[in-house]
Amino acid sequence: DKHLLGTKGMTAGELTSILDRAAYWEQYPVKVSNGLQGRFVANMFFENSTRTRFSFEVAEKRLGAEVLNFAAAVSSVQKGESIYDTVRTIESMGVDAGVIRMKPNGLLAELAQKIKFPLINAGDGNNEHPTQALLDLYTMRKQFGEIKGLNVAIIGDIQHSRVARSNLWALQALGAKVSFCAPQGMQAAELAGHAPYVTIDEALKADVVMMLRVQLERHEGTLFGSAEEYRAAYGLTVERAARMAPHAIIMHPAPVNRGVEIDDELVECEKSKIFQQMSHGVPIRMAVIERALS
Ligand code: CP
Questions:
Q1: How buried is residue 122: exposed, middle or buried, by Cβ count under 10 Å (0-12/13-18/19+)?
Q2: What gap in Å lies between CA 166 and CA 107, rounded to an integer?
Q3: Are 99 and 70 spatial neighbours (Cβ–Cβ below 8 Å)?
Q4: Nearest CA to ligand 1 atom 3
Q5: Aspartate/ornithine carbamoyltransferase Asp/Orn-binding domain spans which residues (predicted)?
Q6: CA 100, CA 108: separation in Å to the nearest integer?
Q7: Which of 49, 79, 113, 209 lies most in the core, judged by the most C-beta atoms within 10 Å?
Q8: In the CATH scheme, what architecture does the domain 12-127+278-293 have?
Q9: What is the pLDDT of residue 62?
């Protein structure tokens, strides 16, 4: 299967082969190779993005592919064209692979049944964001040597987080221990039994403290008080970060709400790998595109 819909169901071997190939690309001595010369890749973002969209584009260009960028705001989606008809249209023009981000849950699996070119999930609803999890795993493996046995605490808006879900499945496949920490209104009922919920004090003992963005655009009503109340109860404050183990690291998929889920001073502190995560997005996406088109 050339599609990359999610990390759920991926084996340790599949995940590791992508991480290994990304390590190859991270070391690659020249910026642009010609491996995908003459191949066309479309980036189809039906939902906003900075990191994922740009790092896919950099990855595609580094592989020598021809890149097409689709933006929903200036497309016939504005005339009511469906996501399926849009993707089918792009496929019909001879494009070789599509990177896709969209809001509806469940639609990607349906599209993957009908669309023949490989689809790479760049984030679907609150379901999965597999390339984010892969770059997160890559960052952890680079830091600690291996994923197996790591304690990873994922803190924040679990319910709305495709990053939490993709990390959960991938980390468990590689033998890490995942715990969640979230206020009641941000817990995910369907994940009950997959990872325990722990207190913030317990979460701070982990090797990896992964903070999630409070996703206000996905909330219906207030899920947990004001920004100040959230920070006081669940934020990674300077005081809390000082209690983390000396070897432990801070991660966040970004964009970051500075001063809400993480203090401003911590975003670029020594323990923080947030900008390294973004750098790793490029070699990971090179590996993923190559896999789709091989
Ligand atoms: N981490 C992430 O997916 O960021 P973007 O929404 O900017 O792509």
A1: buried
A2: 17
A3: no
A4: 52
A5: 148-289
A6: 9
A7: 209
A8: 3-Layer(aba) Sandwich (3.40)
A9: 98
* 130-277 CATH pick, 3.40.50.620, 3.55.40.20, 3.20.20.140, 3.40.50.1370: 3.40.50.1370
Environment class of residue 74 by beta-carbon count within 10 Å: exposed (0-12), middle (13-18) or buried (19+)?
Answer: exposed
Helix 83-92 vs helix 107-114: crossing angle, to nearest 10: 30
Give φ, ψ of 258 to 5 degrees.
-65, 130
Tokens of residue 90, six digits? 């792009």
Decide: 51 in ligand 1 pocket, CB within 6 A: yes
How high is the pLDDT of residue 232?
95
| DSSP line for 41-73 | EEEEESS--SHHHHHHHHHHHHTT-EEEEEEGG
User: What residue segments make up the domains of the chain, in order of their start?
Assistant: 12-127+278-293, 130-277
Q: Is the CB of 50 under 6 A from ligand 1?
A: yes
Least confident of 15-19, 128-132, 166-170, 216-220: 216-220
Closest residue by Cα to atom 1, ligand 1, is 253
Q: Give the pLDDT of residue 216.
A: 66
Helix (H, G, I), strand (E, B) or coil at 110: helix
Question: Is beta strand 97-102 parallel, antiparallel or unpaired with respect to 119-124?
Answer: parallel
- Closest to 66 (Cα-Cα) out of 87, 88, 94, 92: 94
ipTM value, please give it: 0.99
Q: Ligand 1 in contact with 8 (CB < 6 A)?
A: no
